[in-house]
Design goal:
Helices cover about 10% and strands about 25% of the residues. A five-stranded mixed beta sheet has the order 2-1-7-5-3, with no helix packed on it.
Amino acid sequence: MICTRRHALWLAGGAIATCAVTRSSGAQTVINVEMPGSARGERVWFDPLGLSVAPGSTIRFTNRDPGNSHTVTAYHPKFHDRMRRIPAAADPWDSDFLLPDAFFEVTLTAPGVYDYYCLPHEMAAMVGRIVVGTPADAGWEGAPEDQSDVSDQVLEVLPLAQEIIAKGNIKRKDRS
């Protein structure tokens, strides 16, 4: 099961849009992932890009890029007919476009590897990987062996699940 919450701002009208909320009272831990970008917008990324969390953790993705809108979209056939790159027991998610300072939350309960991307910036390798639990957990599902659905640039950026588990989180600069 995945619970999501989205917070968006309407910058043009200056009004705050109401949040669509579906929450599980069991989620206790909130971990932040930011979506920054360079001043001219030529580089965009998730920070951290690799994250290890316990089942039931809530991840909050916040757009910190003043010049771009971003999405947080799970690799799944439900969204843009992509290959599934999240555990079979997990529900896919898509934040829709997040304006600067808006956030999206997702609670991940199924153990395994979750790959996600920013829809308009996937070709710039704006992707990330979350490892929920460990391979010793019942129902664990690792990263897919078929890598043909993503570009070489994406594969180059995504850290291995073992590396994420060992380090806890991986920032993009740690991989450059």
